Amino acid sequence: MSLVKLIAQADERALAASGLASLDRCLPLLAEENDVLRPLWAGVQGGERDWPDRLAEARTALDEAIEAEAAAGAGAEVTAADVTAELIRSLLGSAPAQWAAEPLRAWADTCSVVALEIHQKLDAVGDTSGDPAAADRLARCREDRTAVPDAVDGSEGGDGVGPLVAGELRRQIRILEILTETEGPAGLRQALDVSTEGQRVLRAVVSRRARARS
Asked: Which domain holds residue 10?
């Protein structure tokens, strides 16, 4: 099933976790502390009871992490990481406190697209984010699973997307499948494992780029 269809059919738990995981995987671009959103996973498990309070806590924790990182680099020019940090902060800020399918679906879909665009900027094929054809390719891959074959990271997807984007697409699909098939804490643990692997991949990309600049 395509990513778009999985999002369309997901319940509140899967949607909240999917959106959260998309943001969680981008954290290596923002700060040294990559587990700042980890407590919010407990809010997903608690559902309507815990989500609003955990979400408020996560927003505060992310603000503090971003501000600490900015203070450490005080006086430096604005970087792509700074822009990404504000984007992720904005997306977490727009997360619905209401535990309801439709607002969570819209949020999860936006987080999915933004995470893919962020990965596209860092992909080996180069930043094609300003190219309308690149946006069309991302849209097609979200709508057609055959364009994103199962493969190890480093393998390109179909339709001309690069390996980093292909890996992110596969993770988004896999997380929604896990949460649809596996109830309770076990499903969330598996989804978190998939997302954590995505963090490691992105952290390695960031590290390689930093070494290349030095």
From this structure: 3-213
Is the pTM higher than 0.90? Answer: no
169 and 148 Cβ atoms separated by less than 8 Å: yes
38 half-sphere exposure, CB direction, 13 A CA radius:
8
187 in Cβ contact with 179 (< 8 Å) = yes
pLDDT the model gives residue 137: 85
CA distance 127 to 109: 22
CA-wise closest residue to 52 among 16, 22, 9, 90: 16
Banded pLDDT at 67 (limits 50, 70, 90):
confident
C-alpha distances (whole Å) from 213 to each of 63, 68, 82, 209 are: 28, 23, 17, 6
Q: How is residue 144 annotated by DSSP?
A: -
Encoded tokens for 62: 């992310």
Closest CA relative to residue 24, chosen from 86, 90, 72, 92: 92
| Total domains present in the chain | 1
